[in-house]
Write a structure and sequence with these properties.
Strand content: over 45%
Shape: globular
Distance between the termini: 19 Å
Number of strands: 33
Mean pLDDT: 94
Structural class: mainly beta
CATH superfamily: YVTN repeat-like/Quinoprotein amine dehydrogenase
Radius of gyration: 20 Å
Low-confidence stretches: 1-10, 12-17
Helix content: under 10%
Number of domains: 1
Strand order of the largest sheet: 1-27-28-29-30
Largest sheet: 5 strands, mixed
């Protein structure tokens, strides 16, 4: 019995040390590719799911995921009349909160943007366009900018959803103003560094990525009606290609891989893969392929083993789809009861559907290969849209006002 107690205590200590060392400092992880480098995770779950370590309640209603850094977990939600940034310790206990402007209370009320952590600071853009920089450990405000006031940001039907991108000493956001589509600010002061006025369209709902290829660094992001690349040094528009849904719902973050950019959106518009043709400080793009089956709405997709995996929107005929990266050819597409959000870690795809169902998938190019599944507890309001996160041997799932932490480390 004593030996068992020692083993259990040692396991708990190791799990704590592991969770404290790992970081997931922004939406979709360190590289914004939604691929965790974690190993030593459970290959399948016990009946009823992995052990739930704790539940945190009171983070506010919203759809923001979590970021993890400095031994803290960060997310955002509607608390009262405000959009509130909350920091929790690794036991799920509150460390600090900060109100970042009024809450979004119209259609699909709640937070959207996941905080971005960099160099001891946190950056967050509220659904109404309030951009702030805070000290990550204390929540003390360093600076704030109203992007509507400074850049003429035009409000979107379902509110701003991007998570700020850090590029060196700059923070990149997309106000979608008529004269300020994409902007770079000094991350230390909030002062404007450059403005790209050439995109013209309103902002999309998704986040930007930084692409380095052929000696050229560029910011790639979707506006409401197109996919664009701008030079990271000065914001000059490099290329723009139309990619539009009936409701201007470009939500997904672009994916970069080996000189190519992939972007997907719902309503059977689907995915496009672009080849980047860099010449000096200029860049043009060629369309390699399009596939309407890869019509991800807002749950992200996974590139693994030369194949793409995603929940598909299908004009509300939901499904799960796999396609070849090289050719764009669909290898399978099956109907599912609903769509969902994905992440990847240690040879498995983690799939959270909109109705509280969590599945562990084996990447399989021929079928939807479910290894294990469970349902998270009832209690949260609305769909489970927040993307799941795997970090430090834990699976984090957010539903409305609740955050759940599950132990998925193999012993």
């Amino acid at each position: 019995m004593a030996g068992l107690r020692v083993a259990l205590l040692l396991g708990a200590v190791l799990a704590w040390a592991r969770s404290g060392a790992a970081e997931w400092p922004q939406f979709h992880g360190p590289r914004r590719d939604n691929m965790s480098t974690e190993t030593g995770l459970l290959e399948q779950w016990p009946e009823g799911g992995p052990t739930r370590l704790w539940t945190a309640k009171g983070i506010g209603h919203g759809f923001a995921s979590v970021a993890i850094a400095h031994g803290l977990i960060f997310t955002t939600g509607n608390v009262g009349k405000n959009t509130v940034i909350t920091a929790l310790d690794l036991h799920g206990k509150p460390a600090w909160t900060f109100a970042n402007g009024p809450a979004w209370t119209r259609e699909h009320p709640g937070s959207r943007s996941t905080p971005t952590l960099d160099g001891g600071h946190l950056y967050h853009k509220s659904p109404l366009g309030h951009l702030v920089c805070l000290e990550a450990k204390t929540g003390r405000k360093v600076w704030g900018v109203d992007t509507a006031e400074r850049f003429g940001a035009r409000q979107l039907k379902w509110a701003f959803g991007e998570s700020p991108l850090i590029d060196g000493d700059r923070v990149i956001v997309c106000p979608g103003g008529e004269e300020a589509g994409i902007v770079a600010l000094d991350k230390r002061t909030g002062k404007t560094v450059w403005v790209c006025a050439e995109t013209r369209h309103k902002a999309g709902y998704g986040s930007a990525i930084l692409v380095e290829h052929g000696g050229l660094r560029q910011i790639v992001v979707a506006t409401a009606q197109s996919l664009v690349g701008v030079r990271a040094a000065d914001g000059k528009l490099l290329w723009q290609i139309k990619h539009k849904t009936p409701y201007d719902e470009n939500i997904m973050m672009p994916l970069f891989h080996e000189g190519h950019v992939l972007f997907s959106t719902g309503h059977r518009v689907g995915a496009v893969r672009l080849k980047l043709n860099v010449q000096g400080q200029a860049c043009a793009v060629d369309v390699v392929w399009r596939n309407p089956d890869l019509d991800n709405h807002h749950g992200g997709l996974i590139l693994h083993g030369g194949h793409l995996y995603t929940y598909s929107h299908g004009k509300y005929k939901w499904g799960f789809t796999c396609a070849e990266w090289e050719s764009g050819k669909t290898t399978f597409r099956v109907r599912t009861p609903t769509k969902g959000a994905l992440t990847y870690a240690d040879g498995r795809i983690y799939a959270l559907d909109e109705r509280r169902g969590m599945r562990l998938l084996r990447p399989n190019t021929a079928k939807l290969d479910v290894v294990s599944e469970f349902e998270i507890p009832r209690g949260g309001k609305g769909p489970t849209w927040a993307h799941p996160v795997v970090c430090g041997g834990r699976l984090y799932i957010r539903h409305s006002d609740f955050l759940y932490a599950y132990d998925i480390a193999a012993r």
